[in-house]
Amino acid sequence: MWRWREAESVELLMADRLAALRMAVNGGPRPPLSWPVTDKRTTAARAMGALTVLLLAACTQPGLRSGSNPPGAGAAGSLPALRREDVLWLERTAFGLNSATLAEFRSLGRERYLEHQLSGADFPLPAPVVAALAGHAELGTDPLPLLIEVEAQNRAVNAMPDGADKDQARKARNERANQFANEAIRGQLLRALYSPGQLREQMVWFWLNHFSVHQHKANLRWLIGDYAEHAIRPHALGHFRDLVLATLEHPAMLEYLDNRQNALGHINENYARELMELHTLGVQGGYNQQDVQQLARVLTGVGIDLGNAPRLKPDLQRFYVRAGAFEFNPARHDFGPKALLGSPLEQQGFAEVEEAVTRIVKQPACARFISRKLAIYFVADEPPPQLIERMAQTFQRTDGDIAAVLRTLFQSRELNAALGGKFKDPTRFVLSAVRFAYDGRTITNTRPLLNWLNGLGEGPFGRQTPDGYAMTEISWASSGQMSRRFEIAKSIGSGNAGLFDGDEGAAGPGGGFPQLSNRLYFEAVEPFLSADTRSALARAATPQEWNTFLLASPEFNYE
Amino acid sequence: MNRRHLLKLGSAALASAALDGRLYAAPAAGPRFLLVFLRGGYDSSNLLVPYSSSYYYESRPNIAIARPDAALSTGALALNADWALAPAVRDTTGAMYLQRQVAFIPFAGTDDLSRSHFETQDSIELGQPTGGARNYRSGFLGRLSDTLTGDAAPAAISFTDALPLSFEGAATVPNLSLKNIGKPAFDERQAKILSDMYAGHHLEGAAREGLELRQEVAQEMTEAAMTAANRGAINTKGFELEAERMGRLMRDKYRIGFIDVGGWDTHVGEGAAQGNLAGNLGNLGRGLQAYAASLGPEWNNTVVVVLSEFGRTFRENGNRGTDHGHGTVYWVLGGAINGGRIVGEQRPVNRGSLLQDRDYPVLNDYRAVLGGLFRTMWGLSKEQCARIFPQTTALDLGLV
Question: How far apart are CA A51 and CA A382, in angstroms?
């Protein structure tokens, strides 16, 4: 326990320090080299020591002193002041701000930044992230041999005689699956935190949530990594139809929504229904129960096969499709005539599946449904209808080009008008807090993030029902949620969450508490704080507390 | 017990609450309801044992629970001529049953025949008709708490880490697991600063309430633990401790609660009078007893329903366990319920009465059963019942 000097109030000291730093950022005189010292200054200074060093380091960075003066700003060498709407707009394109994102924005400007984010550019990950991901090569494993191995192991375990050995083997099997899934999640979290392609990362999250699968069903823990990397990520900014087909052909979806079981004479409608209701058209999307039944028939035979190709009658062989664990088995398919959404389907076999998907995604209802959902995620809980309409027009004109639809969204005046009013869902809150707090330092341990997200009820691949997590404030701002958020703010702000421990839980070098009152803060946060938040920050007794209040503030929880 | 009786008990308890120095300023009046969800599908045949059925003993050569023996005070407890209660809960739930505070509803469950944990849990928590389009953002406890607005506005809480699907749609319901209660993260000064930051903001209430709840719970639970220790009370742990805390919170502050308890998926080595399942049932029984005790007089104003997504196969499997089944046994508990009975539609337990030669059929639909309880407890109209459980006719089992 340490105390501040009696003569000086905490508020004053903090205010002084911040004023000094603000001047530094704006190109004013350098702050004093150390805090005012008196004889009584002991532990307080030690606690502040790390902060001081960092502040001074920041102040001497050359970048800080380059660039032109903002209009009406002070001395030479300061960066142009940012407009609130630019900062908030930028935040929407990313999982919150960090220095790298802000620097890219400053160098490119809004339009070119957006084009870069929407392009298919190969956004290189920072070296430490590449190194962290490279350590887990099994994540790139093709799911087929993996599934074969897992199912063989399951059979072996089930065949064991009852007893301690069997229990042990079950436990080991389960732990391996958990570990594998957690590695996949770790990879997703690190990319989301540090990829320069922040908009694409948000879209990966958005589509994973839109085409939601639950990791604890069947053997999905072995599949979610591949699902994210190979079904979702390559199409996140591509064409919507490709995305639907990629999920339709992925074993994770076929297992999760039971189409693996869907066969002639054993109809399972589950996936057919959700494909229209949740993935493409929406509840009032102009289809009826008849269409659900017809689509279920179309989807018969679309499933998973871990073995050799089945023996087929000669006339069926040309319909057989196989790619990894995915299989279209014509022997299980209903080849009878079908009609969907008012007209007959003309193709046969898997071509009929593709025809059905094409027809569905061309419906105006699909363009509106997807546009509306994107607008809810990026613009507002109740997005303006005229914006949805323009996005839907883009969707239809471009044959479902997701990047084009997002361009309409991010260039819209409706988005500008809605800035600052979108409550961050737990994923955005947690990721943006870590990006902001540990700006430039790559965390090594994602376990705390996973715990926070689970605790806030938005764990990765954790939504039980196929509708994905809600994206509106009402689902995430209950009293229980708010207090948990504040606690997470404290964990991050105090630096004791273990984010720099080894990924297997080994204690790391420790990070100390983060420095939130940094250059990024003075550039992009401080100018736009409310009086209430400023007053709260001024009442902070320690830097850790100051960090906590900032991350807990309304300004940080909205974007 | 009719509704008027419930409410009367409620106001009597309210009057006494003022005297014993409660922590919370605004005790909840009116009936209380707690849903205990046993996730995993518990083996109801080894809780409520159909001991008059020789087929039960044929089907379970290794895991059957022995017939009740009047000379034995530790075996199964005969509840009537057909059913006996597992020894694991004999001293807890069994004793409450004899005080008419417990009833069982065999052959209960849902028409969801998927026998999948996820699907069936989801469909129960949503409480909507199966087979059609469903609204995943609307759980039945959410609709219940939305229905009871106005004078009877209930304060609902989920004692879980995340808000369960049951409460989906009711945004103001807090969730707080009482499993481990540490020191609150913030002292009073810090909590005040955090609250002040949200002054005038539309989340002001949520921010303040969340902080206060944490502080209150921590304070209350610590004081209570200390008091218990001083009196040399047995140190409770696990679910029992959690349930005791839940009871205290519901006594003072909340009227609708939810808790889930896992560990019931006994495919392997289920055990019989003792073993895995018996251990879990024992914990549950002690927890429910502790919950009742900590509610004090409000126990007379409370209804608890214990349910699970499905029952299990009637026959034991090759691993001395049981697999996913269908119909199950629901428990209804409360200080003033018309208990000490096995209620609802029933049929003799033999091979012919099994569904698909596998498990219990469902004769008492969960939506009808819960709808009937809610209707009487809160005096709901037909329309209100239909909002909570659409396309269902509430079933009156005469329990409340």
Answer: 42
Phi-psi region of B77 (alpha: psi -120 to 50; beta: other; left: phi over 0): beta
Touching A: B residues 93-132, CB under 8 Å: 118, 121-122
Task: State the Cα–Cα distance between residues B218 and B167, nearest whole angstrom.
Answer: 24
B203 has a chain A CB within 8 A of its CB? yes
- Kindly state whether A549 is in contact with chain B, defined as any CB-CB distance less than 8 angstroms: yes
Q: Three-state secondary structure along A292-330?
A: HHHHHHHCCCEEECCCCCCCCCHHHHCCCEEECCEEECH
A475 in contact with B at a CB cutoff of 8 Å? Answer: yes
| Cα dihedral: A349, A355, A357, A363 (round 10) | -150
Question: What tokens does A267 get?
Answer: 């109809």
Q: 3-class DSSP state for residue A522?
A: helix
CB pairs under 8 A between A and B: 111
* SS3 at position A495: coil
CB distance B210–A217 less than 8 Å?
A: no
Instruction: State the best of B128, B165, B197 to mutate against chain A, taking most chain A CBs within 10 Å.
Output: B197
B174 touching chain A per CB within 8 A: yes
Contacts with B183 from chain A: Cβ below 8 Å: none
* CA atoms of B308 and B289, how far apart (whole Å): 19
What's the N-to-C CA distance of chain A in angstroms? 36
Residue B24 contacts A, CB cutoff 8 Å: no
Dihedral sign from CA coordinates of A162, A167, A168, A173: positive
Give the separation between CA A384 and CA A392, rounded to whole angstroms. Answer: 13
The Cβ-side half-sphere exposure at A249, using a 13 Å CA radius, reads: 21
Say whether residue A455 is in contact with chain B using an 8 A CB cutoff.
yes
ipTM: 0.84
Residue A162 contacts B, CB cutoff 8 Å: yes
A479 and B190 within 8 Å at the Cβ level: the answer is no
A486 and B185 within 8 Å at the Cβ level: the answer is: yes
pTM of the model: 0.81
- Show residues of chain B in contact with A480, CB under 8 Å: 158, 163, 173-176, 210, 213
Q: State whether residue A558 sits within 8 Å of chain B by CB.
A: no
- Write out chain A's pLDDT in tens, 559 residues: 233 333 333 444 444 445 544 444 444 433 333 333 333 333 343 444 334 333 333 333 333 323 222 233 333 347 889 999 999 999 999 999 999 999 999 999 999 999 999 998 889 999 989 988 886 655 666 789 989 999 999 999 989 987 889 889 989 999 999 999 999 999 999 999 999 999 999 999 999 999 999 998 889 999 999 999 999 999 999 999 999 999 999 999 999 999 999 999 998 888 999 999 999 999 889 999 899 999 999 999 999 999 999 999 999 999 999 999 999 999 999 999 999 999 999 999 999 999 999 999 999 999 999 999 999 999 999 999 999 999 999 999 999 999 999 999 999 999 999 999 999 999 999 999 999 999 978 999 999 999 999 989 899 999 978 999 999 998 898 888 899 999 999 999 999 889 988 765 565 555 678 988 889 999 999 999 999 999 999 999 999 999 999 999 999 999 9
Q: How far is A158 from chain B (nearest CA, A)?
A: 9
Q: Please tell me if residue B269 touches chain A, with a CB cutoff of 8 Å.
A: yes
Torsion region of B355: left, alpha or beta (phi above 0 gives left; psi -120 to 50 gives alpha): beta
CB neighbours of residue A42 within 10 Å: 12
Residue closest to A430 by CA, chosen among A351, A485, A509, A381:
A485
Q: List the single best residue of A277, A482, A492, A549 to mutate versus B (max B Cβ within 10 A).
A: A482
